[in-house]
# Entry
Amino acid sequence: MTKYLKRLVLFSSGGAFLDGYVISLVGVALTQITPQLGLSQAQSAEIGAASLVGILFGSLFGGMLTDALGRRTMFIVDLIAIAVCSLVSMCAGDAFQIMMCRFLIGVFIGADYPIATSLITEFTPQSKRAIAMGIVAASWYFGATVAAFVGYALYAVDDGWKWMLGSAIIPCIVLLIGRHDIPESPRWLMNKGRSAEALAILEKVYGSHYDAVPAEHVSSDKPIHVFTKGYRSRTVFLGILILCQVVPMYAVYTFGPEIMTAFGLNNGHESILGEAVVSVMFLIGGIPAMFWLNSLGRRKLLLLGLALMIVGLLALGLWPTAPLWYVFAGFGVYAFFSGGPGILQWLYPNELFPTDVRATAVGVAIAFSRIGVAVSIYGLPLFMESYGVGATMLVAAALVGIGFVWSLVCAPETKRLTLHEASSLQHKHANK
# Structure
């Protein structure tokens, strides 16, 4: 992990930071937007879900373009587009305009995911891969945590929601500066027959002592895609797993203040601060998980994390009128043990597919999960209004439970495998 490679991982993780930031900040902004613009619950839900629908389209088509055109092509353009849409959203005057800006921001954030995670995976040494992808997950939680505190600071400002939505411009500028000289992936170049370019980049990133990566390209008479026999089952496994894991998490972040108010915190600064505390627990949980993925293994940590997430959500659902210490304990258990599954939603797609379709696999897995997320986020405030926060937490626990059972049957072990071994259909993954 050279100094240059560490910087590459850090700034490539910026898309995850932006996702966590813009998704979480809209929950705080809606506490002002809804009364100021006289929005209905349905309109608030549409604004909350808009960026998730955008991520669905952006990750799907962005992944395909990344495998076809290269990892770096859209790396700069998407940040500029996010900054422009954030600026425009500050001038929005009704729910539809805000919703469209949020949708477009989601499209470009979704496009960034396949680019960034593929690039990080293909540059990072095998022994550091889980840690590098852990930084991506941590960046999401860090972005969400920063958003909670920014929202807290701007809540009392007149038209504070405009400054909240426009504030994404600042991280975009920082990332543009940091990404300006990030190179193309040597693995992708080798697969395209551009060996001289690949070797030059390897020397730039790692120095003169390095091993050239072999081309993994499948011959043209046997093209592969994410729904080829063998890879199709991996695609379905990832789509369902990520769906079950992220739906409750996005609900907590998108409508965090409303959920905290339902559990007894005062609406306003107190509920926003409560969301910030939970967000910090998500962030803290990802740090040891980076190392546990190599020591415990992918599969074991996934199952353990999902089981304890269920415990936290059940505790909240079964006693929704509990005192605040109990509420924060329940959220703390759920958030802390989300660390391992949270990293694996990025690590697994990049390990289980070859270079030819790696970015596409990331995009398809994210897109599939975001269909469910968008629907659930739209329905969450309506469901919570009708059935209460306790029932909402129980449904979330049931969903994570489905993910646990699914993983018990399907989750592979890829610890200590090279990318070639992990992505090969000939290599039999351990599932115990």
Observations:
- The two ends are 31 Å apart (CA to CA).
- DSSP finds 18 helices and no strands in the chain.
- The domain at 3-423 is CATH 1.20.1250.20 (Growth Hormone; Chain: A;).
- Residues 215-221 have pLDDT under 50 and may be disordered.
